[in-house]
Design brief:
With 306 residues, the chain is α/β, with parallel strands linked by helices.
């Protein structure tokens, strides 16, 4: 076997091994994205009813709550960025980071300071590499987030917005995550969680205004009810965003690994053709050498007979 043929054979073995790995990762991601979609669907009824409850309390009373009251002048904002702990997901992480960068630039152009809160090692690595300050970060659960994880993330964010800005608090809370639209489409979007816009929440919950306008009697008080409900609302929104991001990441991984598997197959076919051509060239060379050697031997024999 010639040197060139050995090179092709070695590359074919290497690409074949890679193809097996990418195919396995594609199948794993496909199974995980189905589970993530089910979790997103299961969390929707709770989030919807909780939204209705928050809207009812907010519009059915005249209570002013720090989580529903617009500040006269917002000077400091918090941005929660959801990324993944692992790569191999195409442009999933880069799109979310790009959306966070655009949001940060817009907030800073409005004269606001921005505190970054990051979920996922990929997003944290991006900011650490650029030596940019991160208020707090979390990792280790992005593939399969739980409600306990969302609650852990929500606690410091709610505490930050309940504080005065002079004490290190923030006036606004924004979230950047990847929305799962379909297996082929995932969109990095941003939205404001706090202060809560009751009109926007009412529209999101698809409940008409007439349904929530009548006054209610709240026990012990509307403010206490809001104190209990609004953190749950934030937790449910963050949890839903985490599930959306997890489903989007698995879909992006499946798509990226399928593309890698297809490319590996094409490369194997191309290398096989080159290996066949090299083998044919070797055979031709060997035949030519045999024929040439035979002719030379015949000429030598004929000369000695004379």
């Amino acid at each position: 076997m010639g040197a060139q043929l050995r090179v092709y054979k070695r590359r074919i073995r290497s690409v074949t091994a890679t193809k097996k790995i990418t195919k396995a990762m594609e199948m794993i991601a496909a199974s995980r994205v189905v589970k993530a979609q089910r979790k997103v669907a299961a969390s929707t009824p709770y989030a919807t009813e909780l939204t209705r409850a928050v809207t009812a309390v907010g519009t059915g009373s005249n209570t002013k709550h720090p989580l529903t009251t617009e500040p006269e002048t917002a000077t400091r904002s918090a941005v929660l960025l959801l990324t993944s702990d692992r790569g191999l997901a195409g442009a999933f992480n880069s799109n979310a980071i790009k959306a966070a960068e655009q949001l940060t630039a817009r907030l800073e152009s409005e004269g606001k300071e921005v505190d970054m809160y990051i979920v996922g090692r990929r997003g944290l690595a991006h900011y650490n590499f650029r030596e940019r300050k991160v208020a707090e970060s979390w990792s280790g659960f992005t593939d399969e987030p739980t409600y306990a994880d969302a609650k852990k993330v929500a606690v410091p964010l709610i505490e930050a917005i309940e504080k005065e800005t002079a004490e290190g608090g923030v006036d606004e809370l924004h979230i950047v995550y990847t929305e799962f639209v379909s297996m082929m489409t995932q969109m990095a979007i941003d939205g404001r969680l706090l202060p809560l816009s009751l009109e926007a929440v009412a529209e999101e919950s698809k409940s008409g205004k007439d349904e929530i306008l009548p006054l209610y009697d709240f026990e012990p008080s509307a403010e206490d009810v809001l104190d209990a409900l609004l953190p749950r609302y934030v937790e449910s929104r963050i949890y839903n965003a985490m599930l959306q991001s997890a489903a989007s990441k698995h879909a992006a991984t499946r798509r990226a690994m399928k593309s890698a598997t297809d490319n590996a197959g094409d490369l194997i076919n191309s290398l096989s053709r080159l290996a066949n051509a090299a083998r044919q060239a070797e055979i031709t060379q060997e035949i030519s050498e045999i024929v040439g050697g035979t002719a030379a031997l015949a000429d030598a024999t004929a000369g000695s007979d004379k």
